[in-house]
Design brief:
By secondary structure, the chain is mainly alpha-helical. The chain has a single domain, classed as Winged helix-like DNA-binding domain superfamily/Winged helix DNA-binding domain (Arc Repressor Mutant, subunit A, Orthogonal Bundle), CATH 1.10.10. Helix content is about 60%, strand content about 5%. It contains 6 helices and 2 strands. A two-stranded antiparallel ribbon has the order 1-2. Helix 3 packs across helix 4.
């Protein structure tokens, strides 16, 4: 659980850096995070997240896709967005730096192994 929280913190920090470097509105951060963790971002889901009108939501998503942070898939009502190359790089970087999970009860496990013949 601790590792998940640490990784989420790193993901949000990097998303904030991308938003700042591309001079995007902070409200797009939630959609970028969803895409980063592998979810599809749709206009209705973005509207629900941000409580924006549909026109503004569409404009936000198109702008983010134009700078490459999201990639548009599908047409019209089936359109959705997935992580673009910069977000995929962040995820790959986090996965490569990830250490192996340790057992939740390392002391007990070690004692049991030593007690066995």
């Amino acid at each position: 659980m601790r590792r998940r929280f640490d990784e989420a913190e790193t993901q949000w920090r990097k998303i904030d850096e991308l938003i700042a470097s591309h001079r995007l509105n902070d409200r797009i951060g939630a959609a970028l995070f969803d895409a980063l963790i592998g979810l599809r971002v749709t206009r209705p889901s973005y509207v629900k997240l941000t409580e924006l009108d549909e026109r503004t939501a569409t404009r936000d998503l198109v702008n983010v896709a134009e700078v490459g942070l999201l990639e548009a898939r599908g047409e019209r009502r089936g359109r959705h967005y997935v992580a673009g190359e910069p977000l995929r790089r962040i995820q790959d970087e986090i996965r490569t730096e990830r250490s192996a999970l340790e057992g939740p009860y390392p002391t007990l496990t070690g004692e049991i192994r030593r007690a066995l013949p």
